[in-house]
Amino acid sequence: MTGAQRRSGPPKALRRATESIAMLLAGRRWFPLWAVMHHRGRRSGAEYVTPVAVIPTIDRGTILIGLPWGAGTNWARNVEAAGGAQLTWKGREHRAASPRIIDPAEAASLAKPMFRLVVRRMPAAIALRRVP
Hints:
- It is a single chain.
- This protein is α+β, with helices and mostly antiparallel strands.
- The chain is built from 4 helices and 6 strands, in the order αβββαββααβ.
- It has helices at 12-25, 74-82, 104-110, 116-120; strands at residues 34-40, 47-55, 62-67, 84-89, 92-102, 124-131.
- It is globular, with a radius of gyration of 14 Å.
């Protein structure tokens, strides 16, 4: 498999080992750093549910999610292609629109100060606008 063919994302063994725990905690009111992203496949149209880590931002209207596996992460590409997604976060449903894949510097400028160093180390992030 060449670099161009390699899929972006965590190794399958790591994903299998952590997915059930992540899905159990994500989206809960008492666990605000993890959410569940509900999105559709950009080619298949299949519905997907993906646990994600939400990074606290300085703007309450912005949802920021780091992409530690890069901008080619499938769920992020699906959300970008669809123009938005549903998010279960802090125990409530949220609509998110206007997704943009952004570089670490812009992501760090949107993040709360305590999280900026972590965000700067990620290859990319996705910023979405919270829809009331």
